[in-house]
Amino acid sequence: MTISIFDASHENASINLSDLSEVELIELLVKRHGAPLMILDCDIIRRQYRELQNALPDVTLHYALKPLPHPAVVKTLLDEGASFDLATSGEVELVRECGVPAEATIHTHPIKRDRDIRDALEYGCNVFVVDSLNELEKFRAYKDEAEILIRLSFRNADAVADLSKKFGCNPATAIELIKQAFDWGIRIKGLSFHVGSQTTDPQKYVHAIESCHAVFEQVIELGLPVLSMLDIGGGFPVSYMEDVTPIRDFCNPIRRALAAFPETVRIIAEPGRFICAPAVTSVASVMGQAEREGKIWYYLDDGIYGSFSGIMFDHGQYPVDAMYWDGERQPSVLAGPTCDSIDVIAEDIMLPKLANGDLIIGRMMGAYTSATATDFNFFKRAEIVVLNEYSAEQYAEPLIAG
Ligand SMILES: *Cc1c(COP(=O)(O)O)cnc(C)c1O
């Protein structure tokens, strides 16, 4: 298979991948671009999207840009027929530049400035999320264009990020908002929720879906306009250090719960992490080393303030290892490059003896990593190198299964 490797200047070199091992490919990329790198493989974006779509065949998938807002991801998913979930005017701008039709987008931030609403409407995105009376009132001015999803909250203490703490209302408030919207002439399209990111128990979705179903029924009983959309949010899990249930099995109970809704109700989801987490491999190199209290400290050119920011912001635990693993392993510490003492990636990791310049590989580094990286201490963020980004015409060729 021949692939094109794009660099920042979009000049590309065709390289016959079948001749290269992964180690050789990484060495070649580091030679061309230097370290640190984030290697984004669009074939894995395609694989993840298709897997989730196969697991939820009747659900429209809106990729949530937040975990990895990269144009190559947007374009790859657009070619796959995906829809998109936006939360800010910056995300609106990104999908607009990538040629995403506005009908394929929804805006799901529950709290918006007037400017944010107008930016989205001007683009043509007209489905918004609301979870309070204060927010609903903002749409009196846009009642002819906008349609609203009411976001419900279902607390989930087990999730990596319990997104129902900060956003969402209870079913009784949802009914009150729907009544008020009716009085104001604002169209309510349906309900949404987010069970929490990296949710490993599908019953959280099942419970939320059942509660939403009860609200749908109540709306009918009250004689209010019938709801036509249910948005089951994101949260679908991936395997980091520990295995999670394969997505097909994970979605079985979700599909069964969704069967309670009539076919006229459109079901959508907002996956983020599941689509992009496995698609990025990080490459950092050893800048220097020291022995401290019986352990070898390796100082890398990427760390907590860079691509590994998810350790702080996302409770992330990424499979990290040396690229070469011969020789005996010894207790080691992997530290980031900044002068801050919290900048440590792994305190207790068994590594072979490394030389300065040796490479450290991080897996599952696509979601909530580079998106939250900083330039603290003037250490530049890792460059993102994109693999397997086919143009629409190239894409007509059969893909090689990963
Ligand atoms: C962050 C977010 C998502 C994506 O969640 P994942 O857990 O990454 O799938 C989806 N919808 C909303 C509203 C979000 O804030």
List the helices and strands and how they pair.
Layout: E1 2-6, E2 12-16, H1 22-33, E3 37-41, H2 42-55, E4 59-64, H3 71-80, E5 83-86, H4 89-97, E6 105-107, H5 114-123, E7 127-130, H6 133-137, E8 147-151, H7 171-184, E9 187-192, H8 203-221, E10 229-231, H9 247-258, E11 266-269, H10 273-276, E12 280-292, E13 295-300, H11 310-313, E14 320-322, E15 329-335, E16 344-352, E17 359-362, E18 383-387, H12 392-395
Parallel strand pairs: 3-18, 4-5, 4-11, 5-6, 7-8, 8-9, 9-10, 10-11, 13-15
Antiparallel strand pairs: 1-2, 1-18, 3-12, 12-13, 12-17, 14-17, 15-16
Helix pairs in contact: 2-3, 2-9, 7-8, 8-9
Residues 64, 66-67, 85, 108, 194, 197, 233-236, 270-274, 367 line the site of pyridoxal-5'-phosphate.
Describe this structure in words.
The protein is of the alpha/beta class and 402 residues long. The protein has 2 domains: 2-41 and 278-393, Lyase, Ornithine Decarboxylase, Chain A, domain 1; 42-271, TIM Barrel (Alpha-Beta Barrel), CATH 3.20.20.10. It is built from 12 helices and 18 strands. The protein has helices at 22-33, 42-55, 71-80, 89-97, 114-123, 133-137, 171-184, 203-221, 247-258, 273-276, 310-313, 392-395, and strands spanning 2-6, 12-16, 37-41, 59-64, 83-86, 105-107, 127-130, 147-151, 187-192, 229-231, 266-269, 280-292, 295-300, 320-322, 329-335, 344-352, 359-362, 383-387. Helix 2 (42-55) packs across helix 3 (71-80). The longest helix has 19 residues, at 203-221. The chain is elongated. The protein binds pyridoxal-5'-phosphate. Pyridoxal-5'-phosphate (PLP) is lined by residues 64, 66-67, 85, 108, 194, 197, 233-236, 270-274, 367.
